């Protein structure tokens, strides 16, 4: 039962079993849920989802790592949590959702400095923490982008 629940939650309800780019699909699903389910954009629910996906993710990805090996591609709950973190306290628009997705994937793939080092934490902690940090980096970067957009010659408004 424990392995089954870990697979369900850790794979983000099966997305982790997509045969190619499961992390990108999981991030995309989290972004699309945020975009099309208005209740998720409400701060109390988004914060709760981030906390739950992170706490459950540490447990589930740790269990999945024992079954599938180190940082298994099937464990994508970390991408879901990281994507939602990248959107936390960001003004809503389709553009900000798209930019947060791009920035989160960029930080998740490139793994600058502390994001890369976080993977060295044991078990589910390492799996989750690098994506939490990638989400924070994406969020902060998106804030800088949003500050710069009005200054551009074509004056993009969010």
UniProtKB/TrEMBL annotation:
<protein>
    <submittedName>
        <fullName>Phosphatidylglycerophosphatase A</fullName>
    </submittedName>
</protein>
<feature type="transmembrane region" description="Helical">
    <location>
        <begin position="132"/>
        <end position="152"/>
    </location>
</feature>
<dbReference type="GO" id="GO:0006629">
    <property type="term" value="P:lipid metabolic process"/>
</dbReference>
<keyword id="KW-0472">Membrane</keyword>
<feature type="transmembrane region" description="Helical">
    <location>
        <begin position="12"/>
        <end position="37"/>
    </location>
</feature>
<dbReference type="GO" id="GO:0008962">
    <property type="term" value="F:phosphatidylglycerophosphatase activity"/>
</dbReference>
<keyword id="KW-1133">Transmembrane helix</keyword>
<feature type="transmembrane region" description="Helical">
    <location>
        <begin position="84"/>
        <end position="107"/>
    </location>
</feature>
<dbReference type="InterPro" id="IPR036681">
    <property type="entry name" value="PgpA-like_sf"/>
</dbReference>
<keyword id="KW-0812">Transmembrane</keyword>
<feature type="domain" description="YutG/PgpA">
    <location>
        <begin position="9"/>
        <end position="145"/>
    </location>
</feature>
<dbReference type="Pfam" id="PF04608">
    <property type="entry name" value="PgpA"/>
</dbReference>
<feature type="transmembrane region" description="Helical">
    <location>
        <begin position="43"/>
        <end position="63"/>
    </location>
</feature>
<dbReference type="InterPro" id="IPR007686">
    <property type="entry name" value="YutG/PgpA"/>
</dbReference>
<dbReference type="InterPro" id="IPR026037">
    <property type="entry name" value="PgpA"/>
</dbReference>
